[in-house]
Amino acid sequence: MTGKTLYDKIWDAHLVHEAEDGSSLLYIDRHLVHEVTSPQAFEGLRMAGRQVRAPEKTIAVPDHNVPTTEGRDKVIENEDSRIQVEALDRNARDFGINYYPVSDIRQGIVHIVGPEQGWTLPGMTVVCGDSHTATHGAFGALAHGIGTSEVEHVLATQTLIQSKSKNMKVEITGRLAPGVTAKDITMAVIGRTGTAGGTGYVIEYCGEAIRSLSMEGRMTVCNMAIEGGARAGLIAPDQTTFDYVKGRPHAPKGAQWEAAMEWWKTLHSDDDAHWDKVITIPGEEIAPLVTWGTSPEDVLPITDVVPAPESFKGGKADAARRALDYMGLKAGQKLSEIEIDTVFIGSCTNGRIEDLRAAAAILKGKKVKDGMRAMVVPGSGLVRAQAEEEGLAEIFKEAGFEWRLAGCSMCLAMNPDQLAPGERCAATSNRNFEGRQGRGGRTHLMSPAMAAAAAITGHLTDVREIM
Amino acid sequence: MDKFESFSGVAAPMPLVNIDTDMIIPKQFLKTIKRSGLGVNLFAEMRYDDAGNEIPDFVLNKPAYRNAEIIVAGDNFGCGSSREHAPWAIKDFGIKCVISTSFADIFFNNCFKNGILPITLPQEQIDVLMKDAEKGSNARLDIDLENQTVTTSEGESFSFEVDPFRKHCLLEGLDDIGLTMEKAGAIDSFEAQAGQARPWV
C-alpha cells in the first residue's frame, strides 16, 4: 500500500459518506461568509424553513463592497452595497453566527480575518463563497471556494458534496534571490502551468524556498492556487505554522493544544505518497515578475519585453492579441518602460503586515511620483493598527500614499475604489482580467515591493535597482 | 430545479480562451440579493458600449444568436471568481449548455446546481462544433443528456462523459440539500466521532 499525501489525510479525516458513484460527502470545519455571495443562500434557508446547522463554525465579515474611507460605519452611500451589508448584519444576527461588523477593529478581508483570529487551523476543511479561500491552505487546511448554492448547502448541512481531486506536488527548491518574494513564487508557478494547469488537482507546495517563508508569505502562495486552476493549495504545517497559530483567540489552549499538536505533526505527505503530477522550480531562478496581459498566466520577469502574440500557440495567440489591444501595449516594448498612473497595495493576496513592511522598506524617505494615485488598503483593522504602531503608516503617508480602512477595495472594485477607463495600475492583487479593477482599467500584477518601486518611478520597475 | 431535457438549440461560438467570470458577469451586477434577472447583464462589458448600446459585433447581439441556448467556448471557460452570478446570468439569458475543452472547477460545479450542463470535449471535436456554431441559426446542435451525446447539424455525433450522480440530479431536477439532509444520521455520527477525536475544532 502506498502512503498518503497531506490532501489524502485531510480528506479521509472528513469523509462522512462515500457513494458507489464516487461522490462523497465531506464535513466542513469552518465556513466563512461575506456579504456578496451569501444573501441568496440565507434567503434559500428561510424559504425552506431550514436552520444553520453549526452557527459556531460559521464566521461572517463584510469585505467585498465596504468603502475604505472614514465614516463607513455610520453610512454606506451606495445603496446596493448598503443593502448587502445590512443583509449580512441581519443574517448573522438571525442565525446566530460569529460576526465582525464594519465597526469592529477585527473586520477585514475574510481570508485575513480567519487566520488572524485563529479560526483557521491545520488539518481543517475550510470553505467560503470566494475563490481565494485557497489562502487558508497555508496552514495545511483543505480550503477552497464554493458557489452560493454550495454556501446554502454548507449552512444547512455543514457538509459539501465533493469528488476527490488529483494530487500535484509543486516543489520550489533552494533559496530566493534578494528582491524576490512569495508573490513571485506563486506567479512563477502560474506562468509555468497556465491558468488551467491546476484544474482537477489539489496542489501541495513544498521545498526549501516554501519552508523558508513566513505564514504571511505562505498565504500569498496558496491564495493564488486558484489562479492556476487548482481546487486548493496546501502547505504542510511546521513550527512556523504552530508559532503563528499559538495564542490566537480561537486557537486551542492547554490540554487541547497538546492534543491538537499531536495530530498536526502527522499532517505531512508520506515519503511514498503517489503524485499525479510533479513540478519543480529552482527558487534561485525566479526573478521579480509582472503580468503584461489580462490573464494571471501572462507573467514575465521585469527585465523582459512584451511578447508577440504570434509566439503563442492555438487560441492563446488570439487571446494575446486581444490582451495587448486592451492593455494598450506593443510587442517588443520593454516591461520596465510601461508607465503607470495608479498603485494599489492590498487584497487577500498581499494585504498582510509583512506585505506592508516590504512596501514601506522601499518607500522609506521617498516620494510617490507626481500626479500618481497611490493607495494602501490594509487587509484587516488589526493589520492597520499594527502598521500604525510600527510606523509604517507614517512612511506611506509621507511618501504620498492614501492610508485606507480595511477591505477588498480595488482588487475587484466593487466599492468606490476603481480604475477609470485607460488608467494603468501596479497592483498587488490577484487578477488582471479585463475590467477587473474598473471598466477599461489596465492591471499589472506584482509583489508589494515591486508596486512600491513603481510608485516612486512612475513606471514598472525592477525593485532590485532601488533596494 | 427544472428537469434537464434533451433539446436542440442554436449554439453561439465564443472561441476566446480563458473567458473568466468577470467577463461573464462584471462585478457591478453582484450587488443583488436575488438570483434572477441577470441575463440582461450577461457579458455586459463585451455586449454593451459605455452608453449602454449594444455592440453589434458581439456574438449574442447578432440576430442569429440572440436566442442561443448553447455556447461553444475556448479553453478554460469560467475561470476566476467563484461568483454563482455567472451561471445565474447564463441561465437567465436562456443558455442551458456550455461546451468547451475545459472548465474552471468552481464554475463547473456551479453549473450543475443551476440546471446548466457543462460538456467537456477534446479540441478536435470542439473545432467541429465551433464550425457548426458559426453557421448561425440554421444550424442547431442536439444535446442529449440521457445518452450523453452532442450532435451537429450535419448529423455528426460526439459522446461526452458526465458524473453519474450529477447526471441523475440534472435529469430529475433534484435539490442537493434535500438529498444530503436524508443523510443527517451519518452527519450526526460523524460529528460525534470527530468531536471526540478533534475536540478543538
Automatic annotation (TrEMBL), chain A:
Catalytic function, reaction form: (2R,3S)-3-isopropylmalate = (2S)-2-isopropylmalate
The keyword Nuclease is annotated on this UniProt entry: no
Classification via InterPro entries: 3-IsopropMal_deHydase_lsu (IPR004430), Acnase/IPM_dHydase_lsu_aba_1/3 (IPR015931), Acoase/IPM_deHydtase_lsu_aba (IPR001030), Aconitase_4Fe-4S_BS (IPR018136), Aconitase_4Fe-4S_dom (IPR036008), IPM_dehydratase_rel_enz (IPR050067), IPMI_cat (IPR033941)
Protein's recorded name: 3-isopropylmalate dehydratase large subunit
Family: Belongs to the aconitase/IPM isomerase family. LeuC type 1 subfamily.
Documented EC number(s): 4.2.1.33
Organism for this UniProt entry: Limimaricola cinnabarinus
Gene Ontology terms describing biological process: L-leucine biosynthetic process
Entry note: cofactor: Binds 1 [4Fe-4S] cluster per subunit.
Subunit structure, interactors included: Heterodimer of LeuC and LeuD.
Pathway: Amino-acid biosynthesis; L-leucine biosynthesis; L-leucine from 3-methyl-2-oxobutanoate: step 2/4
Domain of life: Bacteria
Residues bound to [4Fe-4S] cluster: C348, C408, C411
Gene name per UniProt: leuC
Cofactor(s) the protein requires to work: [4Fe-4S] cluster
CDD domains given in the database record: IPMI (cd01583)
Domain Aconitase/3-isopropylmalate dehydratase large subunit alpha/beta/alpha residues, every copy: 8-458
Pfam families on file: Aconitase (PF00330)
Keyword list, A-Z: 4Fe-4S, Amino-acid biosynthesis, Branched-chain amino acid biosynthesis, Iron, Iron-sulfur, Leucine biosynthesis, Lyase, Metal-binding
GO molecular function, one term: metal ion binding
TrEMBL record, chain B:
Pathway per the UniProt entry: Amino-acid biosynthesis; L-leucine biosynthesis; L-leucine from 3-methyl-2-oxobutanoate: step 2/4
GO terms, biological process: L-leucine biosynthetic process
Single annotated GO MF: 3-isopropylmalate dehydratase activity
Entry keyword set: Amino-acid biosynthesis, Branched-chain amino acid biosynthesis, Leucine biosynthesis, Lyase
InterPro entries the record matches: 3-IsopropMal_deHydase_ssu, Aconitase/3IPM_dehydase_swvl, AconitaseA/IPMdHydase_ssu_swvl, IPMI_Swivel, LeuD
Entry-linked SUPFAM superfamilies: LeuD/IlvD-like (SSF52016)
EC id: 4.2.1.33
CDD domains: IPMI_Swivel
Keyword Translocase: no
Any single Gene Ontology cellular-component annotation: 3-isopropylmalate dehydratase complex
Catalytic activity: (2R,3S)-3-isopropylmalate = (2S)-2-isopropylmalate
Pfam family, one: Aconitase_C
Domain Aconitase A/isopropylmalate dehydratase small subunit swivel: 1-124
Domain of life according to the entry: Bacteria
Function in brief: Catalyzes the isomerization between 2-isopropylmalate and 3-isopropylmalate, via the formation of 2-isopropylmaleate.
Subunit description: Heterodimer of LeuC and LeuD.
Protein family (similarity comment): Belongs to the LeuD family. LeuD type 1 subfamily.
Protein name: 3-isopropylmalate dehydratase small subunit
Organism of provenance: Limimaricola cinnabarinus
